Amino acid sequence: MSVLRQPRWVLFAVITLLMCVLFGFLGRWQWHRHEDRRARNQLIEAAVTAAPVPLADVLTSGEPLSATDEYRSVQVQGRYDAAHQLLWRNPNGRSGYDVITPLVTDSGDALLIDRGWSPSSTTDVNTPAADVAPPTGPVEATVRLRATESDDNRVAPNGEIYAVEIGEIASTTGLPLYDAYGELVDQQPEPAAGLELPEPTSLGMGPHLFYAIQWWMFIGIAVAGYFLLVRRESQPDVATPAGSNATDATIT
Question: Is residue 81 situated within a structural domain?
Fold first, then answer.
């Protein structure tokens, strides 16, 4: 069509092509995020469903937790150190407290354990509603291992934390801590009735696949829109019938 040779339509074609390239790139980016989430969920599911093993089989004192072992269930024995217990304030945006208690093993190293969540007291929002005192005797616990978290530099009240940043907690308490913490799954003696055990991490896929499809659909919309405009531009104007004049239509 001769209309395609006009400079403005050449410009529109270039803009449409650039838009398609951009939409294709954004679609691929969201697709890769979807695939990364799928791979992550497969690792988590494999770790969560694996049979519990002794802590020493997975984690060594002074060594970081392997990415493939995060969420792995392990068994650990020791005694809770109530003197260094901490309250995780509003964990993951949830109003209330998670109770973080060091479990000192026979080797002398301690593993921080998230024993569960309690809402704030109705009489004092700075106090958990549940009795958070740990058992005083020997404990056998099954926990899901979690990696240390990043400290966001917020200053928490004494005895509280905003994130389980193990290096910071170790320097504050002076305890020789494993470089991971555990989410309590089961315990002997029985876990405290007033604490809600930590939930496993959600394995949701998120919206990335939907976003990828959406961006790729925009490619089709852009191309179709361009050719519809070209088609409309190339249509000949409708001629006015000879001898007709709208201004001549008068009432006599």
Answer: yes
